[in-house]
Amino acid sequence: MRDADVIIVGAGAAGLSLARYLTASAGPGRRVPSVTVVEPPPGPSRSRPRTWCFWEEGEGRNDEFVSASWQHTRIRDADGRPITGTSPYRYKMIRSEHYLPALTEQLTAHDGFQHVSATVTAITDGPHGARVIGVDAQGRTVDLVGRWAFDSRPPRPLPAARTTLFQHFLGHFVETSTDRFDASVADLMDFRTPQPAGGLSFAYVLPFSPRHALVEYTEFSPRPLTKAAYEAALDHYTRRIRPLGPYTVTGTEHGVIPMTDASFARRHGRSVFAIGTAGGATRPATGYTFATIQRQSAAIAEACRSGRRPLPPRAHKRRHLTMDAAWLRALASGRIDGPAFFTRLFADNPLPHVLSFLQGTSTPLQDMRLGLHCPVAAMTHSLAELPLLPRRAAPAHHTGTPSTLPGKSPH
User: Fold this and answer.
1) In terms of DSSP H, where are the helices of 24-94?
2) Could you tell me if residue 197 is inside a domain?
3) Mode of pairing for the β-strands spanning 141-151 and 4-9
4) Exposed end of the chain (fewer CB within 10 Å): N or C?
């Protein structure tokens, strides 16, 4: 006997998004599957709050959860020159402290949904589907059986790869004493920050009002920094590069996201599948994941309702993964200057084409045109050597989605 049609391990964006699609109205003659979501009891095993950002044209399925959005974006080159643009896409931000509780409340209204609090220790194939075993807060064994199981936990360790960098960052949610921000413009990359070897760095500023913003220091590099180093970089940016004057830090966001050309297995057994970052949803060259999670979730739900094996679809097109792999290799080897690369990409191409490429919806012709504005020799060299490079185990750093830490005292 099965406990549910579908068991989802993890109640983050990937897990709850899939549960939401699965429990949505299926239409006449189509059955809505029963769903069980398993997440760890409150404590250090649970992910801290975080934010997710993505581009979207027009209204979207998650608009009710969007806490801020921007029609205008800006890049600043190493000398501070701005590159601004407008496109049909809006840059939208969702905060997990609003999104996840709201989704959970919606899901609990469905008769076929249940939530189980347990730390999962094993997911295996069984004679009746997938078997999920865990331990609850009282130390009791939890043993569940479902037709299908989907594991959204971040992969540890990462699969072997030719190139592995990490996108790692520390951000401050700040409140300034005077107006310091233009709330209509999101600064995606400000390259006036000191640049690391074999990578790049930038400041990322999402303003919510003239006095409120998320100000983040971000690096793409082989290893994360110490907390003191992140704090020093943010202090340098907010005092010397873009002075904010007196301000208060109301919260902090820290994250480490893998940027790798590793191959992520989407299937771990006859009835066991991987979703989210574990299933390859994270774009190697950008770290963006949320929009891909939505596409994967919709496809899986459709397969389940149609009675087909719900293998998660490939998260990204092969040509985009190949281009990302070449770019990662060129950046890690020092063949390209990261800030100059992105500055030229945004300056020399229509913004809609750039954003379409970054979110994986660009056409082959658009990709070819973008490629003509890249360092052709460096990228061609990196692309040609990919088949010759061995895949090695990634460094043993924590990987996953961003986390938000408690607020700090006035700065």
Assistant:
1) none
2) no
3) parallel
4) N
